[in-house]
Give the backbone structure.
Amino acid sequence: MYKVEIPKVLFLALDIAQFYRNNFFNTNDLAGLSNRYKGDLVRMRIDKKDYKYLDDTRFGGLRGNFSALLTWRGLVKRGSNIVSTYSLGRDGRLVNAVCNGKIILNREDLAVYTNDEKLKNILEIEAWLLNVRESQAHVKVMLERNSEVPLERDSIDFPKEAVFKSYSGQYFIRSLVNNFVDSNNQILQFSIMNLWEGKKFHKKNLHPLVVLPTKKNPWEEIYAIKNEDLYSHKPLLLNVNLHKKTCEDKNGNTYKLYSLENALKEFSKGNDNIKNRLDYKWEELKEKYCEEGVDYEVRKEDEFSNFLRLFLDWRRTFTIDGKDVIDVRVISSGGPDVELVFSGGTTQKLELEHLWSNYLDHGHHINSAFKNVWIFAEEKFDFQKILKIFGEAKKQNNNRIPDIFLCVEENSNRRAFKINWENKTIEGVNLSFEA
């Protein structure tokens, strides 16, 4: 067994993992979930209603702490807006491990326990990356401690951005550490979306700084890339090989890394490059990189999160109709949401919905993947309403309409019912949960 002591904000993000699964939109979403479900780990400032803190308030708010933790995944449409989406780690392994019980969280000492060495290593990497991001965010501290670095922070033109200016007139913006993209942790990905977004590129002729960290020093090596080299492709993400000191984007386009000393000699200055800056449009670049629209409600708090909270009460074991359920697995899209695993090795597919009628709204009754499926909805069970919703569809679609219905009644009792569609009768199905 491995014990990994991790920062509080990483523990909190793992503790609410079941509510967002692999992706979510921004730190406000994560802070909202934290305060809704983990109020004992979070406390609120009296003078700012929407500004949440962990118990240690000296280093800023909860949203700021989350922003240093997350991996940027891309741009998606949220209603009519294009927004960023993030994940915890470079993939879903940590979140899935928490949901599947391969990682155990101990709230007494804010430590994580696992038997899997790979998960232990991933946890340690995420804790280290959090430290790197936080350290690289404190640019004033770095400059105070390293007076030999020939840069100063431009807090007038860019009060909320890590933008530097050199004594010879060049302007640089710090690239953001994203995550490793390889299993050997040699290729570190950086986001340079902050170079392109908004009006910063119009204000000054900015070049991105790429700071390569080591275990001992988050500011170990400072490099820069010419914005003129980047302009034709305008990548949002750059992959840097820490060993070879090479840089390329996701499409294989390569970019030269210049030492800071050479950049100060060769790079264009803050008032140069006017034509490109005038022609540049952030809105067009956002549209280019935006993925297809996603369902806001599903991403922010999906049906599985509600099923886990309302019906399972955070456990994945229960007994139904005399059969012991030993696990509840989220399964791939295109079919039912989850699979119940019985102790004898058999399984049962279960569809999760907010409302009973959503099953038909989503077209599941005409999809053969939903044969003999069970259904859970957050709506209370009303037999006459169920007959009205599903009666005609049952005649046409037969076993693609569920017979077993799981629900939670107004008094929080969890119930299951079996409908005999031929006779239009109903009977209760035995349920039991461990105390």
Notes: Residues 138-290 form one domain. The chain has three domains: 1-136, 138-290, 302-432. Residues 34 and 246 are 39 Å apart (CA to CA). The two ends are 27 Å apart (CA to CA).
